[in-house]
C-alpha cells in the first residue's frame, strides 16, 4: 500500500512537472515573475546565509583546532580542514537543508493558500496554465540564484574562521590563510556549485508540488508546508549521496 501510494505520488509529481515546463504564453510576464522570484527567494535569503555561515565557519575552526592534538600534525591543517568541510558539504548540502526550511515552506504555503482560496482554479478557468504561470518562475529563479548563494556561503564561512582566529588567537591568521591555500582542489568548488543546482530544483519543485496539490483549508496548508520541507530534505540527502559517489569517484 505504501509503495503504491508512493508510486502514484511520484507519477503525479512527474505530470505536474510536465505541465510546469511548457512554453510560457507571455514571456514578458514570465520574466517579470522570474526576476521577482530571484529577489524573494534568493536575495532576501542572503542575510540568513551570512549569519549562519559566519558562525559555522567559526565553529569549524574552533572544533578542528581543539581536536587536533597530535604534535606531528601541522598547524595549517586547521585552515585546510575547515576549507574542505565548507567546500564539500556545508556550502551546498547543509546550506540547502537550512534553506529548504525557509524557502520550501514559503513556496508551499504561498501556492497552497492560492489553492485553498480557489485562485488557482480561477487561473485554470481563464485558460491559463496555472502550474507554468506560478511554478516555473520559482524553479528557474531559485536554480539561477542558488550558485551565487553558495559562493557567498563559501566566502563568508572562511571569513568566519579568519575572524575567530583574530578574536581568540587559537592560531595565527597567516597560518589559517596558508592552510586555506594548501593543496587546494578547484574541482571541489565546481562540485559544490553543481550540487546546488540539483538541490535548488528539488527544493522549489517538491515544495511547489505539495502546495499545488493541497486539499482542504488552512490547516492542510500548514501540513503541506511541513511535508514539503521533510520530503525536500530527504531528497537532498539522497541526491547528495548519489552525486558524491558519481563526481568524487
For the sheet with most strands, the description reads: none
State the distance separating the first and last CA atoms. Answer: 37 Å
Query: For the CA atoms, what is the radius of gyration?
Result: 21 Å
Total domain units: 1
Q: Helix tally? A: 9
Helix proportion of residues, in percent?
Answer: over 70%
- Total strands: the figure is 0
Structural class: mainly alpha
The low-confidence runs, each spanning 5 or more residues with pLDDT under 50, are none
Order of helices and strands: HHHHHHHHH
Mean pLDDT: 88
Describe this structure in words.
The protein has 249 residues and is mostly helical. It has one domain. Helix content is 84%, strand content 0%. It contains nine helices and no strands. Helix 3 (46-67) packs antiparallel against helix 4 (77-116), helix 3 (46-67) crosses helix 6 (130-168) and helix 6 packs across helix 8 (187-212). The two termini are 37 Å apart. The model has no long low-confidence stretch (mean pLDDT 88).
Draw up the topology in text.
Elements: H1 2-20, H2 27-42, H3 46-67, H4 77-116, H5 119-125, H6 130-168, H7 173-181, H8 187-212, H9 218-247
Helix pairs in contact: 1-6, 2-6, 3-4, 3-6, 4-6, 4-7, 4-8, 4-9, 6-7, 6-8, 8-9
What key phrases describe this protein's structure?
249 residues; 9 helices; mainly alpha; 84% helix
Describe this structure in a few short sentences.
The protein has helices at residues 2-20, 27-42, 46-67, 77-116, 119-125, 130-168, 173-181, 187-212, 218-247. By secondary structure, it is mainly alpha-helical.
Amino acid at each position: 500500500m505504501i509503495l503504491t501510494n508512493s508510486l502514484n505520488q511520484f507519477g503525479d509529481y512527474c505530470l505536474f512537472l510536465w505541465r510546469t515546463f511548457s512554453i510560457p504564453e507571455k514571456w514578458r510576464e514570465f520574466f517579470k515573475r522570474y526576476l521577482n522570484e530571484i529577489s524573494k527567494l534568493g536575495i532576501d535569503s542572503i542575510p540568513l546565509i551570512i549569519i549562519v555561515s559566519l558562525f559555522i565557519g567559526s565553529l569549524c575552526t574552533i572544533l578542528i583546532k581543539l581536536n587536533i592534538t597530535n604534535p606531528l600534525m601541522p598547524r595549517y591543517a586547521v585552515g585546510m580542514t575547515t576549507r574542505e568541510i565548507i567546500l564539500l558539504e556545508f556550502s551546498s548540502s547543509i546550506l540547502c537543508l537550512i534553506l529548504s526550511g525557509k524557502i520550501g515552506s514559503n513556496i508551499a504555503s504561498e501556492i497552497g493558500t492560492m489553492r485553498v482560496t480557489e485562485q488557482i482554479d480561477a487561473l485554470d478557468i481563464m485558460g491559463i496554465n496555472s502550474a507554468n504561470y506560478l511554478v516555473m518562475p520559482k524553479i528557474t529563479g531559485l536554480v539561477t540564484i542558488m550558485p551565487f548563494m553558495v559562493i557567498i556561503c563559501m566566502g563568508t564561512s572562511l571569513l568566519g574562521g579568519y575572524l575567530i582566529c583574530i578574536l581568540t588567537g587559537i592560531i595565527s591568521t597567516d597560518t589559517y590563510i596558508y592552510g586555506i591555500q594548501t593543496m587546494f582542489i578547484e574541482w571541489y568548488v565546481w562540485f559544490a556549485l553543481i550540487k546546488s543546482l540539483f538541490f535548488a530544483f528539488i527544493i522549489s519543485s517538491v515544495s511547489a508540488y505539495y502546495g499545488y496539490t493541497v486539499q482542504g483549508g488552512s490547516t492542510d496548508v500548514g501540513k503541506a508546508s511541513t511535508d514539503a520541507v521533510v520530503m525536500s530534505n530527504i531528497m537532498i540527502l539522497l541526491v547528495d549521496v548519489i552525486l558524491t559517489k558519481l563526481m568524487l569517484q
